[in-house]
Amino acid sequence: MNRFSRMNTFPALSQTILTASDEHRKLSRWAAAQGAVLLKNEDNILPLKRGKTVSLFGRACLDYQKGGQGSGEVWSYHISTLFEAFTEKMREGKVNMLTYPAHFYGHKVIYEKVTDEPEIPEFMVNDVVNLDGVAIIMFGRTSTEGRDRTAEKGDFYLTDAEKALVDAVCAKTDNVIVVLNVGGMIDTSWIIDNPRIKGALLAWQGGLEGCGAIADLLCGDETPSGKLCDTFAREFKDYPSAEHFHDSDDYLKYYEDIYVGYRYFETVPGAAEKVCFPFGFGLSYTTFSFDNISAKQDGDNITVKVKVTNTGNFAGREVAQVYYSAPQGVLGKPRYELAAFQKTKKLLPGESEALTLTYPISQMASFDDLGKIAESAYVLEKGDYKVFIGNSVRNLTDTDYIYSLAENKITEQLAAHCRPHELERRMLADGSFENMPSFPTVRPHASRPEYTYKPTDKPFMLMDVYEGKQSLDDFICQMTDDELIFITGGHEGKSVADTSGMGGIDRLGIPLSNTSDGPAGVRFRTGLGMCATSWPCATLVACSWDLEVARAVALGGAREMDENNLNIWLTPAINIHRNPLCGRNFEYLSEDPLLAGKIAAEEVRSMQSLGIACSVKHFACNNKETNRNKSDSIISERALREIYLKAFEIVVKEADPWTIMTSYNKLNGIYTSANYELITDILRGEWGYKGMITTDWVTLAVPEEEIIAGNDIKMPNRDNAVLSAALEEGRITRGDIAVCAKRILEMILKCI
Ligand code: BMA
To answer: Nearest C-alpha to atom 5 of ligand 1 is from which residue?
Structure first.
């Protein structure tokens, strides 16, 4: 049965309903355990010894943040609490638990905010000490689209009440474990500076069974294997983008240029000591050795081999990370850049696995946006390129292989696009700044094939194109101007989701393809009483550094999409974690574009293998939520290409996403949804993207400029009269509209 016959009907009741099923609940729990990051484990306080008594502290133990808010929200039947999870472990005989503290939290004040933390009676801690128990303190944080976080107590920093709780517990015992149920970077100096906190687990927002995963990890049923996808600095102000993050609601200037995350902290003098936990870091219950390390040029690639051995007493998984260190040259480079990564299988004590990691030599090139060597080209500067391997950016072994270049080498000659006209300066590798020229803003408008209208009383149907009986071009020629305009706008979905649909012209047999948010799972219309599986947040998935986790979550969510007759899943969201305060970081993947790109590419391949379209978002530079519909991201072309577009480029070239969603914001003065250079010159022209591009929901760009730029469909809908007027007044042509309509129809045909 193809999608046409199933379209707009109630979900076929297959034998096993997977939506919000126990099977998916277990899968979500497993995934949540793979991306949690063990930050501290002094005296091997973890995993908890069998029969150990635990006591839970912190209102989050009963009020778990499974994910963030906004379009990334997912309605789930039951979100497990840490209290329930440890009750389960108690029943299994793995631990004992003082249960009354949970009742204390359950019946205390009605909490106003996620961070409201009631004062605890002293005996609650005394009892833990008397039982030689372990205190587990969990703090939660949440954030949402449309609003940024704050560098205040209760967000990036602990509240006084949270600090008081830590102090009250640590005053009596040093058997203290902290769990962070957060969606993004927070202050962790209170963990690293306090020797009485012996254990710390960064559990992120782990979906509906995130607490089950936490209990599995703390009790040793799972061994932590997550690695940080971001750098955790001591203070908010330590981040290079902090100083100017709030300069204006109208623009965001990327003065730090390519020096974002570890590219800054490991390179710029004085920055390294500001780091609490570095990029790629994560402990295990066991230890690993990296042996038989070798690296060599292998044609156009560098290939690194390593034998990873579990040298400890617990089964576990390790992540081999390859970094290169390029010569500073005249363009300047970060000290290290992630080149490749691979996670081992679960290794038993004593077991080894040989890994081979390969990456293209051209990946080490720099984009020369100012023409210091070769304007608008990717250049491998002459000099020595060193290659390292290890398990974090701070724990690397030199492979002793050096790729040497006697002369500068152009690896790709491109053209200048999306250049800034008002970025005064940008950071260099030594922390100084260079002045930036002001470039003119350009608005190209290519001519397009006309697709002249050929009226017909008996049009053939889209199904005839699907079955190969007719060509899509001929199909488009039977569409009136009004029909072409109609299909380049979204329409009220006829589905269980609350986002609009695409298509829907009965005269031509064009079905409505229904969309649904979001990265953490299918978001049903409110009021239907329908629930879905809420998967671990995107940042957690990235911290798994595991394509298997990316695939499992993507397939799980795609099955729930398909089961509910939904066709276009508005995920993955892959904007770079530029600043800790961005309200949507929980939906995004990493400060590093390679990690983000590889994880997202696997998600796209996986969901599309089931006939579910993705919508890779938000293209591009949506790194702040305040005034997101109008804010102008002002950035050099080098930083744009090397950092902020790179993850999208990886996904486009490695996974061929069926749709891409442009962002709300402007890019160097032009809305991304109407940015011809971004969409037609770079995305389609340079990267060869053939798929469909949608706006975000309710963009403010001039509609015809979006069509001219090649942004195919305006969501959730468009005012057709505006485009009709532009057509009549010659501001756009039928061909401009028809090429957009064609890509929309191509996408609909893929979803059938
Ligand atoms: C916008 C953004 C997108 C989302 C869309 C549809 O506001 O949040 O990420 O996919 O709405 O809900």
So the answer is: 697
pLDDT (average), residues 359-379 = 98
Contact indicator for 255, 426 with CB cutoff of 8 Å = yes
Classify residue 117 by burial, with Cβ atoms within 10 Å: 0-12, 13-18, 19+.
buried
Nearest partner of 56 among 130, 124, 158, judged by Cα: 124
12 pLDDT exceeds 80?
A: no
Q: Are strands 377-380 and 409-413 parallel, antiparallel or unpaired?
A: antiparallel
**pTM above 0.70?**
yes
Residues 300-353: tens digit of each pLDDT: 999 999 999 999 999 999 999 999 999 999 999 999 999 999 999 999 999 999
Q: Are 546 and 589 in contact (CB under 8 A)?
A: no
Stated length of the chain: 752
Q: Residue whose CA is closest, atom 1 of ligand 1?
A: 697
CA distance 614 to 70: 19
Residue the block writes with tokens 């290939």? 303
Q: What are phi and psi of 233, to 5 degrees?
A: -90, 165
Regarding predicted confidence, which is higher, 1 or 439? 439
Strand pairing report for 275-277 and 613-614: unpaired
Residue 696 annotated in active site: yes
Q: What percent of the chain has pLDDT over 90?
A: 93
DSSP calls for 185-247:
----HHHHT-TTEEEEEE-----TTHHHHHHHHHTTSS------SS-EESSGGGSTTTTTTTS
CA 211 to chain centre: 21
DSSP one-letter code for 586? G
Mutate to test the pocket of ligand 1, among 144, 498, 566, 570 (most ligand atoms within 8 A of CB): 570
Single-letter amino acid code for the residue at 4: F
Name all residues whose Cβ lies below 6 A of ligand 1: 70-71, 145, 499, 517-518, 570, 617, 696-697
For 411, the 3-state DSSP assignment is strand
